[in-house]
Amino acid sequence: YKYILVLSDYASRFVHTFPMKNQTAQTIARILVNKVITKYGAPETVLTDQGTNFLSKMVSEICKLFKIRQIRTTAYHPQTDGLVERFNRTLCDMLACYVVDEPEEWDKFLPFVTFAYNTSKQATLKDNPFYLFYGREPVLPNDIKINRHFETHENEGEMYNYQWRKAQELAKEHLAEAQSKQKRYYDAGTRSIKYNIGDLVLLKAPISPGKFINRWNGPFRI
């Protein structure tokens, strides 16, 4: 395997990771249908980057078939999909701890690393993604080791459903609060620039700048 497809639920922060031998539109479409839509149902909206595999006619047809609203990140601005971008960095760091001796076998550790992430409490949401996504706490190895029992009592189902819904509402509030703070922090370091029709502008290139590499493309006329 050479690639990883990352899908994240924005409400719960729950992530799905799929190793891929290639990143063609056919491979991605197959995963979307066989691993996601047929298991969890079709999402209302899908946010993707500007990769040609996501912009392909095949993926667009799947979205059209299942009535999925497809939106894309702004060109040359991957921060639009900041949630997945941050997770990608975290995933690479976590995998690096496991594949020191077997760097080519990273796909074997991918499910375990993903599970560890999904069952870890998120500071932004004040809960773990697994619970927010499934409505129950995960059974961890320690629970089995200490022979923890999960007994069911009368009306317990209603209680769990209430707690889950309440946790989702709180997570939504915490997420909105965190996003508001991030916006204020970002706005504090930016300055408003007004452009007029006919102005010439430069477009920042999506590359790692080297010593002699031009960081900008253009100029382009608005």
TrEMBL record:
One Gene Ontology molecular-function label: nucleic acid binding
One Pfam family it belongs to: rve
Residues annotated as transmembrane: none
Sequence ranges assigned to domain Integrase catalytic in this UniProt record: 1-137
Family annotation (InterPro entries): Integrase_cat-core (IPR001584), Retrovirus_Pol_polyprotein (IPR050951), RNaseH-like_sf (IPR012337), RNaseH_sf (IPR036397)
A biological-process GO annotation: DNA integration
Protein name in UniProt: Integrase catalytic domain-containing protein
Species of the source: Daphnia magna
